[in-house]
Amino acid sequence: MLVALFCLSLGLSPRAGAQDRIVTLAGREVAVWEAKGTNTGAAPVLFFSHGFGGCETGSTFLKTALAARGYWVFAPRHADSRCNSLGMSGVPQPAVPFRFPARWSDATYVDRANDLLAVHGALQASPSFARRIDFARVGYVGHSLGGYTVVGLAGAWRAWRTPPGVRAVLALSPYVEPFVEHGTMAGVSVPIMFQGGTADAGVTPYVTRRGGAYDGSPAPKYVVVFRGATHGAWGDRRNRSHDGIVAYSIAFLDRYVRDVAAPALLTSPGQGVSSLRFDADR
């Protein structure tokens, strides 16, 4: 049941996505969305981790909007991906069952963390990319198991190294129960925004419940829950929550990655938002 939730309900698009190009970095296949309107200098960069069994080309609606805002977006293909040139193939089995979060440890899906770290490092060493990217303005973004990945890199798994320059983590319907079970959310060392949905019964309650991931995280922190959004709302099938997902993602990343003045949206529940909680104090 949970495998189906994390894999089959994602609303993933085939690999013929709207990314600007696919490149190989540190031996990984990486989808790239180039920052738009940034000819005058280096632009901030986001690293995106896809969901369990998903595609590096997924969530194109969000990545395209972030690139249009002036962010580079790099999304590596993780080993659990079941994407190929024809679309999805097969249903993977998780390394440790999702229903047993207490069995998860910092060794569980460390390969995903290593993918982001390797791509991050390869870009810094790349003559063609390094001069166009501002590595002092970095954000990590992930959906579902990708959310687990970036929350772990934010400090929820102490053994996972958070690279210098990472200013914020955006966790989209993230699988966070292992961190809650192990009591490690307090280790998060950068501002974090969680996004969830009222119809995302398998994931969002573990973020929003008393003693859950939001409560356990240090400030600055935000959680926005979209009315009627399922776990697949962050996929590319058109969804009424997409506009809100884009708006709150940009507001949060602009505030903490770009360090611009906080927009009113960060502290105001907009249209389609069921609830918004925040603690913006450092």
Characterise the protein shown here:
This protein is of the alpha/beta class and 282 residues long. The protein has one domain (2-279): 3-Layer(aba) Sandwich (Rossmann fold), CATH 3.40.50.1820. Helices cover 27% and strands 23% of the residues. The chain is built from 9 helices and 11 strands. It has helices spanning 2-7, 60-68, 110-124, 127-130, 145-156, 177-182, 204-208, 213-216, 242-256; strands at residues 21-25, 28-33, 43-49, 72-76, 83-84, 87-88, 133-143, 166-172, 192-197, 221-226, 273-279. The chain has a 9-stranded mixed beta sheet. A two-stranded antiparallel sheet has the order 5-6. The longest helix has 15 residues, at 110-124. The protein is globular. It starts with a helix and ends with a strand. Residues 8-16 have low confidence and may be disordered.
Q: TL;DR of this structure?
A:
The protein is of the alpha/beta class. It has helices at residues 2-7, 60-68, 110-124, 127-130, 145-156, 177-182, 204-208, 213-216, 242-256; strands at 21-25, 28-33, 43-49, 72-76, 83-84, 87-88, 133-143, 166-172, 192-197, 221-226, 273-279.
> Helix count?
9
Strand order of the largest sheet: 1-2-4-3-7-8-9-10-11
**Count the strands?**
11
Estimated helix fraction: 25-40%
Query: Would you identify the CATH architecture?
Result: 3-Layer(aba) Sandwich
Structural class: alpha/beta
Q: Judging from the principal axes of the Cα atoms, what is the shape? A: globular
Main sheet overview = 9 strands, mixed
Helix and strand sequence? HEEEHEEEHHEHEHEHHEHE
> Segments where pLDDT lies below 50 for 5+ residues?
8-16
Integer-rounded radius of gyration: 17 Å
Distance between the termini: 39 Å
* Count of separate structural domains: 1
- The CATH superfamily turns out to be Alpha/Beta hydrolase fold, catalytic domain
Q: Which strand-content bin applies to the residues?
A: 15-25%
Q: In CATH's first tier, which class applies?
A: Alpha Beta
CATH topology: Rossmann fold
